[in-house]
C-alpha cells in the first residue's frame, strides 16, 4: 500500500521536467512529419539510438552466435547460454528496433491500419525482452555454480540439462506476453515511443507484475550471485591460481559488466513505466528510457571482447577466417592453446 501510495503521489505531482506542459495536446498524432513539429531533437536522437542499436546489435550478436557455434573451444554450457541470450538480443536489435524506426518515420497511421501487426510486435517485444532478462539471470547462476560450487557444476549444467535450461527463458518470455492477449493489459500503439508495446494505461497491476517478476527479481538474483562470487574469489584467490580458474573469472567479469548495463538500462524504464500509468509524463521520459532499455541488447559484445580473452580470440579467429586470403593465415597463425575447463 505504501509503494502504491508513493507511486500515485509521484505520478500526480506537477514536476515540469517530466510532465507535459499546458500547451501539450494529448490528441496529437505523432510520427511521420508531425514529430518534427513537436520535438525534433528528441525523436532525431531516438532515431540515432535506434539506428545504432539495429546495426551494432545485429552485427555484434550475430558475430557472437557464429563465433561460439564454429569454435570448438567454446563448446561449453556457459557459452550455449550466451548464444541463447544473443539470439534474444539479436531479435530485439534487428526486429523490434526496426519497427520503432518505422513508427518515427511512417507515423501512427501505419500501425492503426494494421492492428494484428501491432499486437504481434508488442507480443514479440515482451517475449524477446523477457527472455533476454532471464538469460542474464541464468548466466549469473551458471557463473556462481561454476566458480563457487564447481563440484556440482557438471550435475546441474550437463549438456542435456543446459539445453532444457535454455528453453526456460523463452517460456518465461511467453508467460510474460500472454496475459496481455487474454485481457490483462493489452497491446497498442504508444504515441510516446511511436511503436506497438504493452499498453501501460490499461492495467497498472500488469506493470507491477512485469517490473517485479522480470526486472527487479532477476536483478536481485544476479546481484546476489555476483556478490557471492566476489566474496569467494576474495577469500580463495591466493589458493586457486590455475589458468582455467582465471578464465572463469574473466568470463564472470564480462557477464557482471553486462549486468551493470542491464541494471542502469532497465530500472529507469521500469520506474517510468509504472508511474506513467495515467499517461501524463512528458514523452521524453518514455522515449529515453525505452531507447536505453533496448540498447542493452546491443552492447554485450563489448564486454565479452574486453574481459574474456577466450571470446576475444574467438572473435579474431572467426573474422580472420572470413577474409579472402585467410586460409593460409589462419593455418600459420599459432596461438598457445590452453585447455578450456568446460565452463
UniProtKB/TrEMBL annotation:
Membrane-protein topology: Multi-pass membrane protein
Subcellular location as annotated: Cell membrane
SUPFAM superfamilies the UniProt entry points to: Family A G protein-coupled receptor-like
A single GO cellular-component term on record: plasma membrane
GO molecular function (one): G protein-coupled receptor activity
UniProt KW keywords: Cell membrane, G-protein coupled receptor, Membrane, Receptor, Transducer, Transmembrane, Transmembrane helix
Signal peptide range: none
G-protein coupled receptors family 1 profile domain span: 60-304
Residue spans crossing the bilayer: 40-66, 78-100, 120-141, 162-187, 207-233, 254-275, 281-307
Main location: membrane
Family: Belongs to the G-protein coupled receptor 1 family.
Annotated PANTHER family: B2 BRADYKININ RECEPTOR/ANGIOTENSIN II RECEPTOR, G-PROTEIN COUPLED RECEPTORS FAMILY 1 PROFILE DOMAIN-CONTAINING PROTEIN
Protein's name in the database: Melatonin receptor type 1B-B-like
Organism: Brachionus plicatilis (Marine rotifer)
